[in-house]
Amino acid sequence: GSRSFPTALGQLPQIFLFSCAPAHSGCVPGAISMASMAAPEPGRRELREGLVAEAAVPRSFFKDELKTMFSIGWPMLVSFFCRFGMASEDSAFVGHLTSGSAARRLSLGQGGVFAGGLFGHVGAAFISYGFLAGDALSSGEGAMKYLAAAGLADMVTNILIIPPLAFNQSLNALVSQAMGSGNKKMAGTWLQLSLLWLTASYLPMLASFFFVSPMLHVLGFSDDLCDLAGLYAKFNVFWPIPNGWYQCMRFYFQAQGISRPAMYNNIFFLLVNALLNWILVFGGPFRDWFGWEGLGFIGAAISLSCSRSLQPFAYWLYMFVWRKAHVETWPSWSERTFMKPEHVKSFMQMSAPQIGTLIFQAVVGQATTLLISKLGPVAIAASAATQAATMVLTGGLSPTLSMVGGIRVGFYLGKGQPVRASRVSMLVLVVGVGITAVLGVAVLPFAHQLMSVVTNDPEVQAPAASILPAVVVNLVASIVVSIATQGILTSQGRTKVVTFLSMGFELPVSIGSTAALVFLFDAGLLAVYWAQAAVTVFEAFVIMAIVQRSDWAEFARQAQERQRSNDAENNDEDPEEADPPRHASEISMQEAAEEKKVSGEGTSHSDSPRRGA
Q1: DSSP states of 86-133 as a string?
Q2: Tens digit of pLDDT for each residue in 565-593?
Q3: CA–CA distance, 395 with 128 (Å, rounded to integer)
Q4: Collapsing DSSP states into helix, strand and coil, what is residue 134?
Q5: Contact 256, 322 (CB under 8 A)
Q6: Collapsed DSSP state (helix, strand, coil) of residue 603
Q7: 350-403: pLDDT as tens digits
């Protein structure tokens, strides 16, 4: 259904040109009107006519869609920041581990944290550490060693847990397609498949957590640092599987438009994790009551394991046991729909290529960091400072918009409405570019002031401020790449194209250009960052050309076929007669509202053929 990569590349000059006929013609961006097309194959006539007949998009479409995106997206954005905050809390507490004054401040009593406000102290520590003000976090070589060991352990374990996460990366697309198609029980089938495959793939992967120390020895780190990092990693072995389950459940419900419960859960456990760190690292109230000074260094790892293991359990209790929000979209385990070959095949076609995508993206990130490190310690510090300063854009906004875009595109493809899907894709791209560009331009005049907040070292502030314009350009282009690949193309079912772009395009071009500048031309930090920005802009144009040349009607047909393979009785209920369930999702309520709106318009569009069954 999709055009080839070389063909899309050749259409770069036409990237923002849409040769569309008027709305009633059923044209999608980059396609000619149905009136000028040859008659479709007899077997596809009804489906293709039905798919394209929905072209009469109401004037309020973009306004309504923005409201829906905002309603789903802002809780997801808060959730991302809370998840990042949990890991940063551990580092903040570890950074105070050997500081006597800091340890005393963390105890109860006069001048203690609870006397002065625990959350204010944790927030200050989190901000200080997140913005690399290490000298404010630690006093002494011991704290620096603990921080380095925890950081190395996190770096290795975060790489090790990446491959199994591919089995939940397609849930947003698959579940939203199921919701749009009306065959909502398929949403539960995709979740069951995701849970099973993620768990099975994690079991052998977790064994590698016990060999982090030898891995770091191979890389040439000191024995003490390797032993500490290896010990820290062993106590992190408990949380990856529960954390993966939590992601599966979150993606399952947020693709249905239910995103606020996860936000509240994440906020609550951000506080729980801080409390557990205080108790397990420093002893908490038991320090004064019984003289117990906590578990020290490994207490941070144990607190994270406890928090990320209890978090999915609390979410499951609320969403599945008490609220029963899954009933509308959940087939019983005894039905074993997850074992049907056609379902397993469709799931693996969407998920398996993402293993390569995640691995290659991790390789690109680590390789770029290593190459920049060749420019010297000041370059490393300046690069880290700009990353910390732009964490708002890279840490939460990009994945949020990618997921929201993927959910909405998948919903309309599953519903057999390719015109709406294509317009939603353009809408989310415009929103992403607009927000990122506005925020980026707003901080540029205050580059030096921003870097003074990040670090108090003048030798780092100057180069960090100089590369900030290139970083902003890179971020604007990167958000286009992220939304288009992880959101739009994934919802179209083109995960192999995404993997190809990571492996065959981003890996050689991005790393290759950086390596050439560093090793062949002895370029400085500023030249390297502008080269990275130029490469990302070029990649964004290529990916936009691919998206613009999409055969949306074909991808809608594929999405409906993928979701239609479940038992026919799931669709027996007449949607016009069914009332929304007690805990209807945002998407379910929107669907009901649209049906009422259409029915209220009478016969104003009676001349349009009905969408294919």
Answers
A1: HHHHHHHHHHTTT-HHHHHHTSSSTTSHHHH-HHHHHHHHHHHHHTT-
A2: 544 444 444 433 334 444 445 554 455 45
A3: 17
A4: helix
A5: no
A6: coil
A7: 999 999 888 888 777 777 777 887 888 888 888 878 887 787 566 688 899 999
